[in-house]
Amino acid sequence: MWATVTSPRPEKAFMLLALDGYPQLPGNSLAMLYHTEMSTPLKEALLGDQVRVGDRLFVEVLLARPDLRRSGKVQVHVREIPEGPVDTALLGRDENVGDDSPRSGEN
User: Fold this and answer.
1) pLDDT tens-digit series, residues 61-79
2) What is the domain extent for residue 59?
3) Cα 80 to Cα 84: distance, rounded to the nearest angstrom
4) Rounded CA gap, 85 and 88, in Å?
5) Could you tell me the CATH number of the domain that includes residue 30?
6) Please, which residues have CB within 8 angstroms of residue 106's CB and are 6 or more apart in sequence?
7) Domain tally, the chain
């Protein structure tokens, strides 16, 4: 599923994401993407302060449960799917990315 970066936190090596199709999660909960669930290029971009609010990622939900520390909220953890579809809005943002750039796992 697609997710939109709402709060990159390079100093803590994670980011908060809004999940497409789930705008009304209880308590306006956001999904967390930890550095351990990111591809190396995304992790390097985050730590290099290159991930921006509004960037889009393809993710898979790993965990969704009531938040034990914050009443009325949901804890959602995701992992990046680097071989997922390309968000065409981001193509061309980096001079090394183009319409014919191979994705990992594709020949």
Assistant:
1) 998 888 888 787 788 899 9
2) 2-85
3) 9
4) 9
5) 2.40.50
6) 83
7) 1
